[in-house]
Amino acid sequence: MEELQRRLHEEWAEWQNSHPEGFIATPKEPSENGRIYWECRIPGPPNTSWVTRLFLVHLTFPRDYPTSPPQCE
């Protein structure tokens, strides 16, 4: 589990330098059941009525990440 957390921290640090403008990702403390997740906010698409909104998404990372992809909730 610590190896996964370390890897995700490194990926997050790298992402901070190169992410698309307006996108936000915040790693959260592991949940009570040990799930590792990030809280993300994705901006609405340009030229739509949603352009000023941020949409909340949770990414939950499986223990065998990156072999298995994160789940999006």
From TrEMBL:
Q: What is this protein called?
A: UBC core domain-containing protein
Tell me which UniProt keywords the record has, alphabetically: Ubl conjugation pathway
Q: Which organism is it from?
A: Talaromyces rugulosus
InterPro entries linked to this entry: Ub_conjugating_enzyme, UBC, UBQ-conjugating_enzyme/RWD
- Where is each UBC core domain found? 3-73
Tell me the superkingdom of the source.
Eukaryota
